[in-house]
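hiii so um. not sure if this is the right channel but i have a protein structure encoded as tokens and i wanna go backwards to a sequence. like what aa goes where. can anyone help
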């Protein structure tokens, strides 16, 4: 094809440079390092990032926007740390795709799903996993950590306690075992901590608007992190004496050391966020005061209300506590004085965390009662394995029916044995009582760890009536918008009890919406791409053992709150990172 002057649009480059993210093209000096680093360009699809940048400079708008090539970038971000000019090519691709859809070059309705590696598509925070894993393999640790911190503020935390859904979808898992994405993230974060010099993201010029955040859990702190980066003044109000939400008050120290938690929260303070502890909104300060003094409010109050056992004796005898309170007091440095026979009721993460904590505190005996079998336990399977390994008794198919006591104090729990019947709505087999099977377990303390829900008393008046059927606050999951003007929300209060990384994702999306609304735009539901994980099964690939996480010995675990997982060393991290295929995510059907 012969190109004529008509095929060149001299405004094309400046049109791109004028859009958020598009300004990066100005830094490119055509060296081609991106193409050399790009796994997708090795795939035989003809994809070439340098060629795309060159076409932008040449003004070849029609040829580029109408071409399938702009849909081949997998947003792995491997080229970011290779580029000497630090150009984020994927941000330029975002602009090209947006223009292609808006200006009618690309078919399809609105934003289509964007092909990427399944690990990145599955991570709720959409971290550029192939990019940071490549950075580890090449020993470029600072660059790898920067990539993660663009998508979330808590790599050291999530590198320890995230249930790592990314690994479940990892293409390597089809060959042998998934890449240890979670542990590699932790490796990068720990390296920074050892050096004692935390990376603080650059901030944009200060803006005059201020945002109030209620709740210093992962949702609120993440919203604060991104809003501070955008240049807003942010104040976080937290009713407890420590920041971190359930990361500080629920998750025990042997899974998440507090120096890691505090170091990552400190970065948010260093970005200029003020965290006011011991201030309960609705009690110490009114919600209306915040609406008056701040231009927007983010509500991230989580699920603070424990579910009760609902059996006789629960309210009668002292010595019955809920799992959240039990862990909170220990995490705040106030463990129970007497440590006799402890019975914990429930099968979720809170139950196993209570049991493992109590074992370390030296209780005379610790037993978990669960009404179904191990298979149905909602706790993460690896947490259950750890509990069993630590020789904590779990009594399956056991239902407490009455708390027993004397002189106002708990003395035991009356239970019945259960058997599994037909599946219920959740698909798990329903536990059915075996008549006449009552028996008693002696106990000096009973912990009810049946889960938690939203404490409706914590909701501000304008939102009191906007509760879903499931008892959670109604807010748009994409934008965080609630029914009250300029009030946004996210995290457990909206989703019900979930995970830290999901709360982070909520906080990030809400910060983006708050920024848009405060700049006079509308909060857009389609503001972020919908990622589509693409499977990849190489025909020939050598099997390679996954690196094993070094752990504290069982004897040490029984008497100390020291972290159980010890972390990869340099060599392990690099070997593990080399197991990643890197090439995952190319969307071939657009060719
Ligand atoms: C025991 C336990 C173990 C867990 N383990 C894991 C795990 O291993 N991995 C994982 O991913 N997730 C885990 N989770 C879940 C995870 O911690 C939560 O999903 C996550 O913390 C929710 O974040 P959030 O910001 O929405 O709420 P939260 O973390 O609950 O934070 C809400 C904050 O708001 C504050 N607040 C509430 N009301 C007010 C008010 N009126 N004024 C001021 N402040 C207020 C609260 O004090 C709290 O600090 C665990 C949870 C528990 C309870
Ligand atoms: S596929 Fe990855 S390395 Fe290649 S251009 Fe896109 S973000 Fe860069
Ligand atoms: S945050 Fe969780 S899901 Fe995301 S990459 Fe890390 S371990 Fe995987
Ligand atoms: S092998 Fe593929 S899916 Fe697994 S971590 Fe690497 S890029 Fe992600």
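sure thing!! here u go:
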């Amino acid at each position: 094809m012969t190109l004529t002057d008509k095929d060149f649009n001299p405004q094309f480059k400046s049109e791109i440079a004028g859009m958020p993210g598009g300004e990066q093209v100005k830094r490119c000096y055509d060296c081609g390092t991106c193409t050399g680093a790009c796994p997708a360009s090795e795939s035989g699809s003809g994809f070439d990032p340098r060629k795309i940048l060159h076409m932008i400079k040449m003004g070849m708008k029609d040829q580029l926007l109408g071409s399938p090539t702009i849909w081949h970038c997998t947003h792995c971000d491997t080229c970011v740390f290779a580029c000497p000019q630090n150009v984020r090519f994927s941000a330029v691709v975002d602009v090209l795709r947006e223009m292609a859809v808006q200006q009618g070059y690309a078919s399809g309705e609105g934003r289509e799903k964007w092909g990427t590696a399944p690990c990145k598509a599955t991570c709720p925070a959409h971290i550029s996993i192939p990019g940071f894993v490549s950075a580890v393999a090449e020993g470029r640790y600072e660059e790898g950590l920067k990539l993660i911190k663009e998508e979330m503020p808590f790599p050291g935390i999530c590198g320890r306690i995230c249930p790592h859904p990314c690994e479940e979808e990892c293409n390597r898992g089809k060959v042998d075992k998934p890449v240890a994405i979670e542990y590699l993230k932790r490796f990068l974060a720990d390296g920074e901590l050892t050096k004692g010099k935390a990376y603080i993201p650059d901030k944009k010029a200060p803006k005059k608007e201020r945002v109030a955040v209620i709740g210093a859990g992962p949702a609120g702190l993440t919203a604060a992190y991104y809003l501070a980066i955008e240049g807003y003044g942010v104040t976080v109000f937290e009713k407890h004496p420590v920041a971190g939400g359930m990361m500080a008050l629920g998750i025990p120290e042997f899974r998440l050391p507090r120096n890691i938690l505090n170091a990552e929260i400190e970065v948010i303070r260093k970005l200029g966020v003020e965290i006011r502890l011991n201030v309960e909104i609705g009690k110490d300060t009114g919600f209306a005061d915040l609406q008056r003094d701040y231009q927007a409010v983010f509500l991230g109050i989580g699920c603070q209300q424990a579910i009760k056992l609902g059996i006789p004796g629960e309210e009668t005898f002292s010595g019955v506590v809920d799992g959240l309170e039990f862990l909170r007091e220990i995490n705040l440095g106030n463990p129970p004085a007497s440590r006799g026979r402890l019975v914990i009721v429930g099968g979720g993460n809170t139950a196993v965390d209570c049991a493992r904590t109590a074992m370390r505190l030296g209780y005379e005996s610790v037993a978990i009662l669960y009404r179904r079998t191990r298979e149905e336990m909602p706790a993460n399977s690896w947490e259950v394995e750890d509990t069993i390994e630590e020789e904590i008794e779990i009594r399956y198919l056991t239902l407490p029916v009455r708390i027993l006591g004397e002189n106002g104090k708990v003395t035991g729990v009356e239970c019945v044995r259960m058997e599994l019947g037909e599946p219920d709505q959740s698909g798990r087999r329903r536990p059915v009582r075996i008549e006449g099977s009552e028996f008693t377990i002696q106990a000096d303390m009973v912990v009810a760890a049946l889960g938690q829900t939203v404490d409706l008393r914590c909701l501000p008046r304008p939102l009191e009536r906007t509760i879903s059927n499931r008892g959670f606050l109604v807010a748009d999951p994409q934008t965080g918008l609630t029914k009250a003007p300029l009030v946004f929300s996210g995290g457990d209060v909206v989703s019900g009890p979930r995970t830290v990384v999901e709360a982070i994702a909520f906080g990030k999306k809400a910060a983006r919406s708050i920024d848009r609304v405060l700049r006079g735009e509308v909060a857009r539901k389609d503001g972020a791409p919908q990622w589509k994980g693409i499977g990849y099964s190489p025909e020939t690939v050598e099997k390679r053992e996954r690196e094993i996480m070094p752990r504290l010995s069982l004897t040490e675990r029984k008497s100390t709150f020291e972290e159980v997982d010890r972390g990869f060393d340099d060599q392990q991290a690099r070997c593990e990172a080399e197991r990643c295929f890197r090439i995952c995510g190319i969307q071939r059907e657009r060719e």
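oh and DSSP finds 23 helices and 18 strands in the chain.
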